[in-house]
Amino acid sequence: MLSSIDGEGVRTIVVRADPQAEIDSTVVGRIRTFSGVEWVGAFGPAQDVQVSTLPEPAPVAMRTLASTDDGRLHLGRFTIDGPSGEASADALRALGLLDPSGDVTTTDGEDVAVTGRLDVPSFLAFLQPLVVQRTRSDQVGPAAVIVVLARSARDVEPVATQLPAVLDASDAKFVSIQTSHELVVLHRLVEGQLGGFSRALVALVFVILSVVVAALLYGLIMMRRKDYGRRRALGATRRFVVGLVVARTVIPAAAGAAAGTGGAVVVLRALGDPLPDVGFCLGLGILALAAAAAGAVVPAIAASRRDPLSELRVP
Questions:
Q1: Is the distance from CB of 6 to CB of 152 less than 8 angstroms?
Q2: DSSP structural state of residue 276
């Protein structure tokens, strides 16, 4: 559930800058240094392009792009000399192009060759239909729309708070920062409720484990009470008997916890589900051992208090 709420749409921060803000594409390098940022792209101002050879050409917005990973949109698969760009499926349909190839013309009369199809991720859907013009990696241009993808929903607020300091805008009133605030709050609420429910469920499981261990061990001690009576008669102290019983419980419990944790990791990996970290696995195993040991204490004390004379008496 959390993975679905923690989708790309929730983690997206959109910065819109007017030309008066004077923000350029070098801002990408500054934002990428944030630890909570997964991807950042700076799109230039929209420029209408169309297929001039069609009877009724439809204009589509074309933008330049500077990003940390062009592969996110599958950019750069084809290169040619001269101005070129790549279009999304929606843009190709709007332009009237059947295939991701052909020429489009800007409002300034410049011809741009379409050389490929863009794969636009869901967090950039608001820019559709989209044509991205290829630019040199060292080319600096204006940034009109900056899209920042945080690593998780909890990183959205810290990243959005730090953004104004690195935008280097000439006037902050020409810049707006938008986040999915409601969805982030929902993510935190659901995460807190699920976390509390999970902790209560784990605590209940360990309590039941302790009760089951205590019941089974007490029955086993009653069946072998004469053995403990003999140990007491031969000089075993009560502390020794308690330690013996607890050790006989903890050792197989440790083997069971290790086997169970390893099996669970194998199943999760086979199903493609997210894996817990090492600290969680170790903590769960330690809690399981503690629950088993706690369940063994009361039967162990009962075994240590068996009277050697009564247990060894022959009827």
A1: yes
A2: P
Instruction: Tell which residue, 122, 133, 175, has the closest CA to residue 4.
Output: 122
| The pair of three-digit structure tokens given for residue 312, joined into one six-digit string | 């060894």
Q: What are phi and psi of 101, to 5 degrees?
A: -155, 150
Three-state secondary structure call for residue 180: coil
The structure tokens 């995460």 sit at 191
Pair of tokens at residue 230:
């003999």
Residue type, position 288, single letter: A
State yes or no: pLDDT of 127 exceeds 70: yes
Q: Which amino acid is at 139?
A: Q
Residues 6 or more apart from 190 whose CB is under 8 A from it? 1, 2, 5
Q: For residue range 220-262, what is the model confidence (pLDDT) as tens digits?
A: 888 877 777 777 777 778 888 888 888 888 888 888 888 888 8
Q: What share of the chain is helix, strand, coil (3-state, %, to 5)?
A: 50, 20, 30
What is the reported pTM? 0.58
